[in-house]
Every structure is written in C-alpha cells, then in structure tokens.
Amino acid sequence: MDTDTQISEEEQDILQEIMNIAFGKAAADLAEVINIFVVLSVPDVRIIKADDLPDYIRTEFSEFGNISIVEQNFWGEFKGTALLIFPAGAGKELISLLGDGGELTFESQSSDILENETLMEVGNILIGACVGKVAELLKDMITYSPPRVIIEDQPNISMPKALFDPSNSAIILKTVFCFNERDVNGFLFLITSHNSVIWLKKALADFMEQYE
Amino acid sequence: MINKILIVDDSPVSRKMLKSCMPKDREYAFFEAFNGLDGLELYKKILPDITFMDLTMPVMDGATALDEIMKFDKNALVIVLTADVQVKSLAKVMDLGALLVVKKPPGKETIQDALSKAEERLR
Prior knowledge:
The complex is a heterodimer of chains A (212) and B (123). With 212 residues, chain A is of the alpha+beta class. Chain A has one domain (3-209): CheC-like (Chemotaxis protein chec), CATH 3.40.1550.10. Chain A has five helices and eight strands, in the order αββαββααββββα. The model of chain B has no long low-confidence stretch (mean pLDDT 96). The relative contact order of chain B is 0.19. The interface between A and B is medium-sized, with 23 and 22 residues.
C-alpha cells in the first residue's frame, strides 16, 4: 500500500465519527419510511488491500451461509462501491415491514422478486442516506448507480473483479444495522479505491479545520 | 454557573469537536469518559454541572448511562449529543430525563444554546 494512501490514526478517528453521523442519518431515514427501530453499532473503520476483500467478507460472514448483497456504486470526488450485506432470507423478514407502510406494491410478484425488491428498497435508503451524508459533510456531490441485489454462495464470492484490484486499497467502513423488531442484522461496507483516498485525506483535514 | 463539564463519548474526534464549540470567553473544567460505564463512574466522582452524553458507545451505551445517572442524581443535567437521530431514540432519552438532545455534528450556536438552557436550570 502506498504511503500517500495510508490513513493516520487521527484520520481514522475523523472518518469513524463522520461514518457514525452518516449511519445515524441513514437509520433515521429508514425509520421514517417504515416503522422500524434500528439499533446502531460503533462503526469499524480500517484500510486493507483490495484483493484481501473477498477473504475479509468470507471471514466476516462465515457463520451466515448464503448472503444477500445490495451493491450500489457512487461517483463524486469520493467514489466507490457500497455493499449492504444481509444473511440470506433477511429480505423475507423485511417484506412485511415495507408492506405495512412502504411504497412497494406487491401485486402478483413471485417471492424471490419481492425479496429482491425489498432488499433494494432498504439498501437504496440506507446507502443513499449514508453516502449522501458523508458527501455533505465533506462538501462533495455524489451520483449513484441503481442498486442491484446479488445472492452469494459464500465460498464463491462473485463480486465484480474491479472491486478487488490488487493495486487498490479499500477503506472498510463497517457498521451493523440491527433491525430491532425483526432480529435481522445488516452490514454496510463502503469500499473506495486508491484515487479516492488522497482526496479523502484532504477532505477530512478540511472538515476538522472548522473545529480547530 | 457552569464550571465542571463531563463529556462522555468514545470518539476522540467528537470530544474535540464539542470542546471547540464551547464559548472561548469562559473557562470550563472538562472531564472526559470514553464509554457509558466510565461516564457513570466519573459522574459519581466529580458531580459535574452538566454532562454531554453520546448514545452509541461500547461497554455501556449512552441511554443506559443516562438512566443510571438520573437514578443516582435526579437533578442531573444531561445533554445528549448523538448521531442517532431516530425519533424513537430521541423520545427515549427525553423520557429518561435528558435536558435536551443535540444532533451531531455540533455547531457553536447549538452548543451555546444548550449551555444557556443548562445555565437557566442551574439558577
């Protein structure tokens, strides 16, 4: 990993606090759409080599069996991929919540489609609010790709190869969203590449200047 | 008059941000704790004039610490400073006895307003 893309302990602390604020915003946005309370955890921030990501994901989710991943790309100065990972079947748990008050319509759709659409809706809200808040705090402007859902067979993670480019570093920003009423945990990761890290370091310094 | 301020937050950056928002023309004695349990113990030891309490923390969360502090001192002035802005979270801490809730990130004006409100209660 290049020294110019290594983040210091202080930068890590700043990023952790920014993610904490962003995750809080994401949870509140979700709670506005559906009647759910999200128990937030302290975010875990670390930087690893991108080609270590598959092993990292496998280790983190080894007890889950199959997993569902909502993937959404975002572009701005801060650029990367958000992965919201749930244990397989979480979508079914969440369907009833969205059905109670959400905007999805479920007429004559198969259960797999419903589950995917539910995960996409929840993912879109959480990722949008979270990444959007990070961008707002760091004075960036972000655009998003549409979310997509990938059902993964654990040992064979088939995420896009570009994510795991060995020349890239990946900033892992992990938090656990625990949906209280449904006993469902979701894990949100934001993965940014080498090019975003240099911008991010400056943006973090600029952010803290107002508090000096 | 506010003199002793206890800040309970696991994030060193958040503690720094909060202190930087305090009025510069006043001198405060700051005490810091890094989780709810340490915050509770420090509260009992120093009896601060006001406490700023984060919610999402390891070991003991802020809501639990707030509850314990209010049981120990029903007149405690606790300002919750949190990123968890869900309506249910805010309602819960107000029910537990928080003086008010300030959303992260803090701003100078918001913190000064919070301090003024606390000063009013102390009079």
